[in-house]
Amino acid sequence: SRVSLSAQPPGGQVALGDSLVLSCAVAAGTGPVSFSWHREGSGTPLGTGPRLELSRVGDKDSGHYQCRASDGDSAAESPTLNVTVLGEWDRREC
Length: 94
Description:
- There is one protein chain.
- By secondary structure, the protein is mainly beta.
- It has a single domain, classed as Immunoglobulins (Immunoglobulin-like).
- It contains one helix and nine strands; from the N terminus they run βββββββββα.
- The strands form two sheets. Strands 2, 4, 5, 7, 8 and 9 form a six-stranded mixed beta sheet that branches. Strands 1-3-6 form a three-stranded antiparallel beta sheet, with no helix packed on it.
- β4 and β5 form a beta hairpin.
- The protein is elongated.
- The protein starts with a strand and ends with a helix.
- This is FCRL2 protein.
- It holds the Pfam family Ig_3.
């Protein structure tokens, strides 16, 4: 895919109550691009723009996230990123 998705912290594993930032990028050489963010294939975008910030994540924020990039003529989707929210129990086991 010409659309890439990255996460901070890497891998999409984030502790309960922390922040997660997802970033979307397209291959060089494309014109103006608009972005939208989706979870579990939902039709309603979670946000627009090249970055999606989830602050104070909770259990409900777990799931598969994807970025869709469109240049007006065509659209492409990033690979799916599985976001895992680690609770207090998970954190103790690390």
